[in-house]
Amino acid sequence: MMLIDTHTHLDAPQFDEDREEVIQRALEQGVTRMINIGFNRETIPTTMKLAEQYDFIYAAVGWHPQDAITMQDGDLDWIAELCKHEKVVAIGEIGLDYYWDTSPKDVQHKVLRDQIGLARSLGMPISIHNRDAHEDIVRILQEEKANEVGGVMHSFSGSWEIAKMCLNMGFHLSFGGPITFKNAKQPKEVIAKVPMDRLLIETDSPYLTPHPYRGKRNESGYVRLVAEAAAELKGISLEELSSLTTKNAMERFGIR
Questions:
Q1: Cα–Cα distance for residue pair 210/256, rounded to 1 Å
Q2: What secondary structure letter does DSSP report for 55?
């Protein structure tokens, strides 16, 4: 059985004491590849270091909406240059975050539009962060013709109506720990309807830890728990779910 964690933050300080052990535990759980996310000036270099250190770790680089206000002239060129690296498989995570609201909405919109434009010019898929901004995310993706590159709606939390609009633009939907929560009605309803060839799984570690470890630090190895929950919701075996989502991730991100 092979699993791919399509969204993790193994460079986070929460792993400074035992990062190697965390990575080894993931491998022991059947996680054969991981995509680490560099999302600002601090985490992009550490993400690239991990991708260069481990054959099975890939990178996505972009500017997170919470950090949008810190983006400076030249940062977009930096991201473009890094996208030439053979281990960089997507631009992200990018998007909108109206929950924390650490950057003004107009700044978030501009930074998102600029990065979608970069992705289109490079032919790179994008990884979208969306928190409490469903309508604006869909509108901007449509206006900026994000369908030309597609990508993944990371940790999808929207309704089925929003999901359909994202699917119509060629996006994959990725689900993590919340589908294991008893009270997470909407994500469970949505994942049950997502076409199998558009489904991805992730951890977003060290965040969004699945049951039964909710409240503790998340790890990439816990993507197996997400896979088990997803398989049950889709009515298929864990092995079939693992095979299909691994195939989807490899094709979507162009990894071997």
A1: 27
A2: T
Query: What SS3 class is residue 3?
Result: strand
pLDDT tens-digit series, residues 206-217:
999 999 999 999
113-145 confidence digits (pLDDT tens): 999 999 999 999 999 999 999 999 999 999 999
Residues 6+ positions from 178 with CB-CB distance below 8 Å: 155, 157, 184, 187, 208
Q: What is the pLDDT of residues 220-252, one digit of tens each?
A: 999 999 999 999 999 999 999 999 999 999 999
Residues paired with 95 in a beta bridge: 129
Instruction: Map tokens 């996006």 to a residue.
Output: 171
Structural contact between residues 34 and 58, judged by C-beta atoms closer than 8 angstroms: yes
Nearest Cα residue to 84 out of 37, 121, 128: 121
Global pTM value: 0.98
CA R_g for the chain:
17
